[in-house]
Every structure is written in structure tokens, then in C-alpha cells.
Design goal:
By secondary structure, the protein is mostly helical. It contains 12 helices and no strands.
């Protein structure tokens, strides 16, 4: 993959992601439910990533590695997108976005548009990792490739289990107003986010070629780094936990004290005693 081909591919990816988030904005404005934003983003990134993986950049057709990346993206987008769509259909708005919209006041329409364009911008590193991993020209199946496939499968399964455990907990009237701390949620306050991030760590394993024939491979690290930053410091944990503190108060603070915020770890004994 030449430098010029890589730059052209990234430009096309950026334009496509901008168009996806413009569509998300239009749907949010029409329905008044910002939960559809994440649904559109998931399906949009999945579609753009699959197209980038299978695009004939510098070769005659998609390699087996490109097919693996495309299959992972298809499974990821389909499962997560449908999960978010089902959740969104049952609510009037996403509390994370709703809080921002209230704070913006009369300028909410414009501010929301630019926020979603920023989301398109920060999605470019994710698409970059996908593009680089898919177009690694090494025809051999290496140990790193096998490990990457295993990580993808574990990540998809783990996130699905975490989401289903939370759904079942919330659907039980007995648990109304309670904090979900069963199953995977006993070991992490956000196990779904952890497994989401874990899947993206497979990309550098697919992309890096230790022979030095594919120096682009190391750039694939931008995908898991970007996803970790988004989930842990920007649009994932911070706004969600602010909402939980407002709605659950001391019960959620106790959960914070005893439970790891991201990486699954045994519950803190100190937190249990408080």
C-alpha cells in the first residue's frame, strides 16, 4: 500500500464517516431521541470499515486477512447496532446526550451537529486501524493472527454476555432502582466497554509484520488507544457515571468503591466494608 493510496483511502473514509454522522444528526433532530445516534454510528462505522477492508488497495482483491477484519466488523456492528436499537426503541432519549442538549439551550441544534462531526473525526483512528490490519500483505498465517482471531471471538462473546446480563437485570421489576452487580458486572462497572475495547486490540496483531516489510502495521495501535480514550475518558464512562450518580446516589458510590471501573478485577474488600 503506497503512501498516496493510503492518504486517498483515509480521505474517503473521513468523508463517509462525516456523512454517517450527518445522517445520525438528522435522525436525532427528527425523532428527538438521541439514542439513535449510537445506533447509526455503529452501523455506519461497520459499513465504512468493511468497505475499507475489502477495497482493492494496491492488490487485485481482498486477502484472507481482509475477510477476517470484514467478518469481525460485520458481527460487531450487527450485534451491537441491534442491541442499541432495541434499547433506544424503549426510551425517550439517551441521558448522556439529553444532559448536553439541556445545557446548550437554544443553540442545541447547531451544537449537536458539530458534536457528531467531532465524533466522526475521532472515529478516523478506528477506521485507520481497520484499514491497516486488513491490508497487511503478508500471506502467511502467523501466531499473532491466530491470537487476534481468538481475541475477536472472546470480545464479541464477552460484550454480548455483559449486555444480556444487564438487560435481564433491568427487566426484572424486583431490581428497579438497584445497581446491576451480578455476573460480569461484579468485576467491572463497565464490562461491556472492556470487551468492546478488547476487540480492537486484535487489529495490531493482524497488522504488525516483524519482518519490516509492512511498516504501516505499527500505526494500527491508534485504534485500541483511541477506543480506550473514548470509552474511559470521553463519551463512555464519565457521562454515564455522572448520570448514575445523579439517579442512584450513595448506592452507586458504594458500587464504585468496591468495583473496578474498567478492567475486570475481584471486588474490593475495603469497598464491601464501607
Amino acid at each position: 500500500m503506497t503512501v498516496s493510496a493510503f492518504i486517498v483511502a483515509l480521505i474517503l473514509v473521513a468523508i463517509a464517516l462525516s456523512a454517517v454522522m450527518t445522517l445520525a444528526w438528522a435522525i436525532q433532530q427528527r425523532t428527538g431521541n438521541s439514542g439513535w445516534v449510537d445506533t447509526v454510528w455503529t452501523f455506519g462505522l461497520g459499513g465504512v470499515g468493511i468497505a475499507a477492508a475489502l477495497a482493492p488497495i494496491g492488490n487485485s482483491g481482498p486477502s484472507w486477512r481482509a475477510l477476517i477484519v470484514a467478518a469481525f466488523l460485520a458481527a460487531w456492528a450487527l450485534r451491537l447496532g441491534l442491541h442499541i436499537a432495541r434499547r433506544t426503541a424503549g426510551i425517550t432519549d439517551d441521558p448522556r446526550y439529553a444532559e448536553l442538549i439541556r445545557g446548550w439551550g437554544p443553540s442545541a441544534r447547531t451544537e449537536m451537529f458539530w458534536l457528531l462531526q467531532k465524533q466522526a473525526l475521532v472515529s478516523i483512528p478506528l477506521a485507520t486501524g481497520l484499514l491497516i490490519a486488513a491490508h497487511n500483505p503478508d500471506p502467511m498465517i502467523r501466531a499473532g493472527d491466530v491470537i487476534a482471531i481468538g481475541i475477536m471471538l472472546v470480545a464479541l462473546a464477552g460484550e454480548a454476555v455483559a449486555d444480556e446480563q444487564l438487560r435481564r437485570f433491568r427487566s426484572n421489576p424486583v431490581n428497579a432502582g438497584s445497581i446491576c452487580d451480578v455476573g460480569l458486572w461484579r468485576y467491572s462497572r463497565h464490562p461491556n466497554y472492556f470487551f468492546e475495547w478488547l476487540g480492537w486490540t486484535a487489529l495490531p496483531l493482524l497488522a504488525i509484520n516483524l519482518s519490516g516489510d509492512y511498516p504501516w502495521g505499527w500505526l494500527a495501535f491508534v485504534a485500541p488507544v483511541c477506543m480506550y480514550w473514548l470509552l474511559v475518558h470521553v463519551s463512555g464512562i464519565p457521562p454515564l457515571e455522572e448520570h448514575m450518580l445523579r439517579s442512584r446516589g450513595s448506592a452507586f458510590r458504594a458500587y464504585q468503591r468496591r468495583t473496578s471501573p474498567f478492567f475486570p478485577l475481584p471486588p474490593s474488600r475495603e469497598g464491601k466494608s464501607q
